[in-house]
Amino acid sequence: MSEDRLRKIFDEGKPDWLAGSARDNCTGDELVQLLDTQSYFDLLKLPYPATRDAVLERFEKEKLILAIGGKWNITRLGANLFAKRLGEFEDLARKAPRVIVYAGQSKLQTRLDQSGGKGYAVGFEGLLEFVNGLIPANEIIGQALRTEAKMFPSLAVRELVANALIHQDFVETGTSVVIELYSDRLEITSPGRPFISPDRFIDEYQSRNERLADLMRRLGICEEKGSGVDKVVNAAEVYQLPAPDFRVGERHTISVLYAHKLFEDMDREERIRACYQHCCLRYVMNQKMTNQSLRDRFQLPEKKSATISQIISGAVDSGRIKLDAPDQSSRRYAKYVPFWA
Q: What is the dihedral of CA 310, 315, 318, 322, to 10 degrees?
């Protein structure tokens, strides 16, 4: 078992970290000064209540605040999502997402290093707008027009940032979600190791912070059903990008989006990773991968069928995919499924 899984087992019966208090003994006036209550109702597309008591009642129902002896405690969940300034809460000051931009492909030269200040729910759209504004655009020359497209699809950036915020391990100290932009890739680091293998991110789902995920879903920030990575992989295929990479470190999880790269410039591992993700994506869409579908993914002509066959063979040999019908003699019309199917 991973360290995170063991920790979860030993912590069973203990109160959830997000359910703990971020600020005690607040008056009603202090609550509305510290929390952006207007954004809660705006995100849910509900009219703002006529009285402050009705606002506090709704926040208490969501367990964003707790009534204690005539005053209120703000839970870490409430502060984490709706704080006007995360720095006002000692436990959450270091949980603000951090955006770093580097001049090249390494960390040697930093051009920008900035941390967010608002709660995740109230600051999410602003964070995405800030990150997407930093991503350079590539010029695409069509048949008659020149257009510009961002180096990374905004949908993929949104899903990966949302996943990193929601599924992070809040118990990890001295760290936060970090979004790092290099000249050739975007890396999004989330504290904590995942409960499931990165190979199963496309078809499996398990939330580390269930109440946070539920509320973020209802606020329209994410989908709790686990289709986010599907969208990321599909966007990479549509934009003809190398396959995203998902890495697990000692105490964190990293998602990587790569800038456009020609098929000829991809190494063997990049091609096999793209093959596996394409096979998974087809499977969850109730389809099977074929030589032709993988050629279409790379936008290669039919004369490259032999090259695609080599990639498929490499993925089979590495145990990433398998034949849908092992007894089929013809490989030309063979269909493939992920190893876990």
A: -120
What type of residue is 139?
E
Judge whether 236 and 255 are in contact, CB under 8 Å. Answer: no
Report whether 116 contacts 138 (CB < 8 A): no
Closest CA to 226 of 244, 189, 201: 201
Domains of the chain: 16-92 (no CATH), 96-258 (3.30.565.60), 263-338 (1.10.10.10)
Look up residue 218 and give its two tokens: 């209802």
Q: Are 254 and 177 in contact (CB under 8 A)?
A: no
The token pair at 189 is: 């680091």
Cβ-count burial 126-157 (b if 16+ within 10 Å, e if not): ebbeebeeebeeeeeeeeeeeeeeebbbeebb
- Per-residue tokens: 74: 């703000």
Sheet with 98-102: list strands edge to edge.
110-115, 98-102, 178-181, 185-191, 252-258, 245-248
Which stretches within 220-331 are classed as H helix? 228-238, 268-284, 291-298, 305-317
240: helix, strand or coil: coil
The angle at the Cα of 150, spanning 145 to 156, to the nearest 5 degrees, equals 130
pLDDT tens for the chain, 341 residues: list them: 766 566 666 655 566 899 999 999 999 999 999 999 999 999 999 999 999 999 999 999 999 999 998 899 999 999 999 999 999 998 898 999 999 999 999 999 999 999 999 999 999 999 999 999 999 987 554 445 556 688 999 999 999 999 999 999 998 888 899 999 999 999 999 999 988 888 988 888 777 888 999 999 999 887 655 568 999 999 999 999 999 999 999 899 999 999 999 999 999 999 999 999 999 999 999 999 999 999 999 999 999 999 999 999 999 999 999 999 877 666 667 999 999 99
Are the CB atoms for 253 and 266 separated by under 8 Å?
A: no
Q: What is the value of pTM for the model shown?
A: 0.90
The structure tokens listed for 324 are 């849908």
